Amino acid sequence: MTKKTRREFTEEFKTQMVQLYLHGKTKATILKEYDLAPSSLDRWISQHQNSGSFKEKDNRSDAENELLKLRKENQHLKMENDILKQAALILGRK
């Protein structure tokens, strides 16, 4: 059993695959000819239709962007809280 290595595809290649699909070539044919995973091709088609971009950040919904922002802010506040706890311990020893 051999393990497949993760391949990276250029934006140009992804665009070409989507264009083949949009011009009538079946998904099965594209998958077979280019040895692609079905999930990859489906994701590329979806991303192309949603935003025209294959970058994940361009395809996030407003809710996903808000969640990422809040997680970052939460992490920052936790770090500040830890610093204040350490400072309180140090000042309490004196």
Kindly describe this structure.
With 94 residues, the chain is mainly α. The protein has one domain (11-93). Helix content is 69%, strand content 0%. The chain has 4 helices and no strands. It has helices at 11-22, 27-34, 38-50, 62-93. Helix 1 (11-22) packs across helix 3. The termini are far apart. The model has no long low-confidence stretch (mean pLDDT 89).
Features:
69% helix, 0% strand, 94 residues, 4 helices, mainly alpha
Task: Provide a concise account of the structure shown.
With 94 residues, the protein is mainly alpha-helical. The chain has helices at residues 11-22, 27-34, 38-50, 62-93.
Per-chain topology:
Blueprint (H helix, E strand, L loop, with lengths): L10 H12 L4 H8 L3 H13 L11 H32 L1
Helix pairs in contact: 1-3
Q: Which spans of ≥5 residues are poorly predicted at pLDDT below 50?
A: none
User: Major beta sheet, specifics?
Assistant: none
Q: What structural class results from the helix and strand content?
A: mainly alpha
User: How far apart are the termini?
Assistant: 64 Å
Whole-number total of structural domains: 1
Question: Roughly how much helix do the residues carry, as a percent range?
Answer: 55-70%
Shape: elongated
